[in-house]
Amino acid sequence: MGRGFLIAAPNSGSGKTTVARGLMALFVRKGYLVQPFKCGPDYIDTKFHAAVCGRASINLDTFMATPEHVRELFDRYGADADVRVVEGMMGLFDGYDRDKGSSAEIARVLDLPVVLVVDAKSAAYSMAALISGFVNFRKDVRISGVIFNRVGSTRHFAMLQQVCDDLGVVCYGYLPKKAELEQGSRYLGLDFSEKPESELLVELLEKNVEWQRLLEL
Fold this sequence. Notes:
The structure is a single chain. By secondary structure, the protein is α/β, with parallel strands linked by helices. Helix content is 38%, strand content 19%. It has one domain (3-215): P-loop containing nucleotide triphosphate hydrolases (Rossmann fold, 3-Layer(aba) Sandwich), CATH 3.40.50.300. The protein has helices at residues 16-29, 45-53, 67-78, 103-110, 127-137, 154-167, 199-208, 211-215, and strands at residues 3-8, 34-39, 58-60, 83-87, 114-119, 143-151, 170-176. The chain has a 7-stranded parallel beta sheet, with helices on both faces. Helix 1 runs parallel beside helix 2 and helix 1 (16-29) crosses helix 7 (199-208). The longest helix has 14 residues, at 16-29. It is globular, with a radius of gyration of 16 Å. The protein starts with a strand and ends with a helix.
């Protein structure tokens, strides 16, 4: 059974979709068989996942399905995969009733480590309070580490690494702030004819993220 992890964020718009899709494309490029999943009843991101991975992306939703059924789906569709990548929805703990139905609940149900994508634009050491809050909020949710998004410079990243060092949290790397990577708000009218992944995105992730460590989760 393949390894796996869940990509989440403190809130929508942090870049988890960009990072998830880019990592899937990077793993495929490296020759791994990737099984994608999506938290919640989202049928937009799953289209991108399927285009990148060459196999259907499966929705995992504890609002409409039991935890047992979610585990069965995860095991059945991921049985032959080298790595299983689950993209979260909204903020990590956002559900239909507090954290019920949230990405955090999916992580608990599947006992998956969480990689937190944090938008670091216009912030540095203040990130310590935010990350500490997420790491310590629920001990039954395992946040394995952080990927920073929209990092302004190598100096900015060094300051963010210091945050993780002080907290004892793994920093897997970062995505620099690039206009080409910025995406507008998506809705049901999205054009699926667009190229599913950006060469630039994959190259930046390969260069700036310790993707091999993610495969070991």
